[in-house]
Amino acid sequence: MSTLTVVQVGYGVTTQDLGRPGLSDMGLGAAGAADRGSAALANRMVGNRRDAAVLEALLGSVTLRTDAYTVAAVTGAPCPVSVERADGRVRGAAAYEVLLLEPGDTLRVGLAEDRLRAYVAVRGGIAVEQVLGSRSWDSLAQLGPAPLSVGEVLPVGDASDGVGVGAGAGAWPVVDAVPPPLLPWPGDPVVLDVVPGPRDDWFTPEWRTTLTGQEFHVSPDSDRVGVRTTASTPLVRAVTRELPSEGVETGSLQVPPAGFPVLFLADHPVTGGYPVVAVLTPESVDRAAQLRPGDTLRFRLAR
User: Fold this and answer.
1) How far is CA 155 from the centre of its chain?
2) Distance CA 298, CA 294 (A)
3) Which of 46, 49, 86, 118 has its CA 20 to 30 A from that of 15?
4) Which class for 161: exposed (0-12), middle (13-18), buried (19 or more C-beta within 10 A)?
5) What confidence tens digit (pLDDT) does each residue in 126-169 have?
6) Got the DSSP string for 243-282?
7) Are 58 and 116 in contact (CB under 8 A)?
8) Nearest 5°: CA angle at 17, between 191 and 12?
């Protein structure tokens, strides 16, 4: 089995796959990649199946050395990428490009230029031990393979388990690069689409105007559990009594007493005691997972 050695870790790197759905009766959320679209794209680029484990790197900034021929790709937050050969020579590379690594090569993913989370996939997937059927780290439950540390050796799965041109170990990805997603112009807000939530009637009728008619800002205390926001005008409750705890889904906009939504991401709790005014569309969950503290966003009703 081939391996990757962790040479450098910046702001935090975890292993993520599609998570462990179906365990809410045990009090466990699904977890998994925060930006599922970027993780799936990285897997597709190297010829993996969607459920292969990838690395989720906060602000990029991770360095890995391979001991075998390896196919890799970096997606998500745009990062400078380079490959250093065993003899010290460095060749240019790029995010959203299929990278062919040789034994002894070092893949360097630099600090993200924009957005928050980069995803690194290798052919065969990151084959760390599963916990309850998943290789995902759940930051809320503190469950799964621990965040990466320098010197750690990561096993890489069997390349023949993937998909691509041909069959078995000889199969190769069908692309050599893909265009990166379009980003908002610098300074423009990120637009997130929502649909009304199960408790929208707990707010005054003006909630739609309040939610969609102003800019919100991402708070510094945001994480994989949720994106916390602030704005000029809070949402106002029409029903002020306590809400018994009820189930919540990824993408829920839960509104605490201060009136500013918390956007639940991959590691959210399975229940919540504040009303959910709206829910993000799946594509908007991915966009929300890439928001940095201080970023500006707007909500748009999808229906």
Assistant:
1) 21
2) 13
3) 86
4) middle
5) 999 999 999 999 999 999 999 999 999 999 998 876 665 444 44
6) PPPEE--TTEEE--TTS--EEE-TT--SEESS-EEEEE-H
7) yes
8) 75
